[in-house]
Amino acid sequence: MKLYEKLADEITEAVRRGVFAAGERIASVRQASQQHGVSIKTVLHAYALLESRGIVETRPQSGYFVRDAAAKALAPASAATRAGRKSTPPQPAPATVDVSRLVLSTLRSIRAHDAVPFGSPYPDPSLFPWRRINQYANAIARRHASWNLIDDLPPGNPELIRQIARRYAENGLPVDPGEIVITLGATEAINLSLQAVAKPGDTVAVESPTYYAMLHAIERLGMRAIEVTTHPVDGIDIDALATVIARQKIAACMVMPNFQNPLGFCMSDERKRQLVELLAAHEIPAIENDVYQELYFGDTRPSTLKTFDKNGLVLHCASFSKSLSASYRIGWALPGRYRAQFEKLKFLNTLTTPSVPQVALADYLRQDGYDRHLRHLRRVYRQQASIMSALVLRFFPVGTRVSTPQGGYVLWVELPARVDAMRLYQAALARGITVGPGMMFSTRNDYRHFIRLNYSYPWIAQAEAALKTLGELVTAMA
């Protein structure tokens, strides 16, 4: 933990314990520097981080003060409440998020020796040109024995930013390169986007089911998720979202309009436009997770929410992890009107994104056949999606239903209602097979008879035998 993070956590804990009350001024920068034996720069970083978390606020020529909302949110239950005094019950819809334990357990099990990775969230790395990218990286490392830290600072490597902007332009979405900020994968882009538009205790609308990494981001930042019904073909129910917005304050809406994980749908242009217009009418930012943007099964790359954004309210997040190199973890964001705050948060959270991977990917995009690689990748995924769908319906009992992915590499499977996905998960793991239990994709313990399967890995005899075994386990439980 960095010194400024430690100091920020200590002050947050002091607010939680009531040492600093709502509206109370905390130590000045110079006082804090002397009290904690750290530099003024460290204190400034810590106070800026507390500001981004919504714990303190600055008042011109007065200093830093504890925000009223933060003090109330962090305060422990009163003695009267602990004694059982009647209090206002919490709203049932927004939920605190705690799916990380199940996800971590699942990811650890995937690492088990020889386990069939149907439950993996990651694409098959053997399909990526990692050797070629590594050659670029090694050549760069040899040319530059050391890097100036300034070269790594946000927004990122200029050539990589130019190459990303060029790809958007070639696919019909001209973007301003000056808006792009390079991040440590899409996960950091999503986390920084949330921090830029919301604070601890705020409610964020998400799809249901939704990708668990998005729930992790909400959990990590102390926010609450409210799930909105999502159609397996049309995407998030815009009317249901409008009802949610009318009933309570929503700080942001986080969605995956293209090849959503786990459902695999791609929202139509009209529904994307409607969603952007609804949120814009209420000044609600949209965080768009578009990590699967290049993995379409159709003839053309789909539009994005960013395409229809006229007000700078869409924070568009993407990465190369699903299409080019998972190991390098290079992502980016187009944060719209929140660009300055996003870049500041990037600097405060991780300072830099390593230069060598950025330059290596920029060199690959400029000199090698990225489009040729993508055409092959899409063809493989499309074929394997068809194979897995057909065999699930063949091996699994009557009542099983599967999604129809329009891109990406995951299949959403609805099992007969009597089947408990967690029991299936344990039974399959005992036979060296992993699956993604449906409860990981909700905060409400929903989708107990659903699983997610990954079809990106080679379709060999072992995979078919594992799917047949999985079908036998489901049949025994149905």
The structural class is: alpha/beta
User: What number is the mean pLDDT?
Assistant: 88
Number of helices: 18
Low-confidence region ranges: 77-93
User: What is the domain total for the residues?
Assistant: 3
Cα end-to-end separation:
48 Å
The CATH topology of the largest domain, please? Aspartate Aminotransferase, domain 2
- Give the % helix: 40-55%
Strand content: 5-15%
CATH architecture of the largest domain: 3-Layer(aba) Sandwich
Per CATH, the superfamily of the largest domain is Type I PLP-dependent aspartate aminotransferase-like (Major domain)
- Apparent shape: globular
Region (Disordered): 77-96
Family: In the C-terminal section; belongs to the class-I pyridoxal-phosphate-dependent aminotransferase family.
Protein name: PLP-dependent aminotransferase family protein
GO molecular function, one term: transaminase activity
